[in-house]
Specification:
Mean pLDDT: 89
CATH superfamily of the largest domain: Glycogen Phosphorylase B
Distance between the termini: 28 Å
Radius of gyration: 21 Å
Helix content: 40-55%
Number of helices: 15
Structural class: alpha/beta
Shape: globular
Low-confidence stretches: 40-46
Strand order of the largest sheet: 9-8-7-10-11-12
Length: about 375
Amino acid sequence: MNVGGPAFYVGILSGRLDPRRYRTLLVHGRIGAGEESFAAPAGGEIWAVQRLSELSPEIHPVADMKALAALVRLIRAFRPDLVHTHTAKAGMLGRLAAVMAGGRRPAIVHTYHGHVLEGYFGPVQNLLYRSLERGLARVSDCLIGVSQATVDDLVRLRVAPRERFRAVPIGLDLDRFVGLRAEDGADFRARIGVGPDDVLLTYVGRLVPIKRVDVIIRALAEVSHAGVPVRLAVVGDGESREGLEALAVRCGVAARVRFFGYMSDVAPVLAASDIAVLSSDNEGTPVSLIEASAAGRPAVATAVGGVPEVVISEAGLLVPPGDHRAFAAAVARLAGDGELRARMGACGRGHVLGRFSAARLIADVEALFDELLEGRDVG
C-alpha cells in the first residue's frame, strides 16, 4: 500500500463497492524501503484490513513462504467468493493461495498496473517471471490491464490469450483538483522562489531507475541554458534521489531544481504548476498525469505504456523514451506559449474527467464481478 496507482485503485474498490452486496477484506504487506504509505481509504464504507508483516516487495524466500501460508489461512477463514490481486509479487502469492486453500475455489482476478516483464531485470529473470505469469494466468478467471497498451503488451509477451484480458482504466477522486485556481499555488511558488514569469515543471512520483527522472533534469539543463525561464519541482522519493541531486549539480541547474520528498497533498503543487512532466521508460496508467490533467495542466511525457491514453494529442506533448533533447524541445515549446498551455490543459481536464472517474471504475468492476459470479452459489 505504498503511495501510487495500485493503492489508490484498491482503496476506492474496497471503500465503494456496494456494501449491500460485497463484504471486502483488504490484505496488504509492508511497503518497500524509501516508500511512503497510503494509509487511509478513499472514502466510502469502512474497510476490513489485514496487514501481513511477512509480505514485502523484496524477494525473501523464507518470508515469502510464510506470507503464502498466512494468505492460505486467511482465505480458508474468510471463504471469499472472489479473490482480486494486484501487483506482481502479491498477485503471485495471492493467486497461489486461492488455489491452495482448498474447498470451493473462488473466482480469481488479477489486475496489471503495468508489469515488470520487460525493462526491469536481466534475460534469465525475465524468462522466469514470464513463465510464472503464464502459469498463474491459467488459474485466473480474468486478467485486467489498466490500459489497452498494458493488455497489448501482455498479449505480445504471451502471458495469456487476448480473450482472457479486459482493459479497465483506473478511476480516481478528481473533484479536489478540478476547482484549483492559480492563487492556490501562490505560496508553493513563493516557497521555491518561482517568479511570475517563470514556468514551473512538476514531477510527482517515485525516484527509481525506471522513471528516468534524469531525462527531465538533462532536458531542464538544455532549456535553461537556451535562456528559457524554467524551474522544476520534484515531489517524491526513492533510491535514485541522491544520484539525481548530484546530476542537477553536474548539469548546472541545482538552483533551478527542488526535491521535496513525498507530500500527502499534491493539490498546491498542481495549482502552482505550469507543466506536468513524466519521463518513464515503462508505465501502466500514470496517476500523477491524470491528477495534473484534472487540474487543467498540460503534460510533457514519454509515449510508453498507458501514457498516450491519458495524455491525448490535444492535452500535451509526447516524446520517445530516453531522449532528453526531444523532451527539452517539447518543454521549450509549451513554456513559450501560454495560450497553448491553457488550451491543452482544458482539453486534458475534460478527457480525464470522462475516462478516469471513481464512479466509472466502480461500475466497470461491479459489472465484471457480476459476470464472473453469475451462476455461482455466493454467500
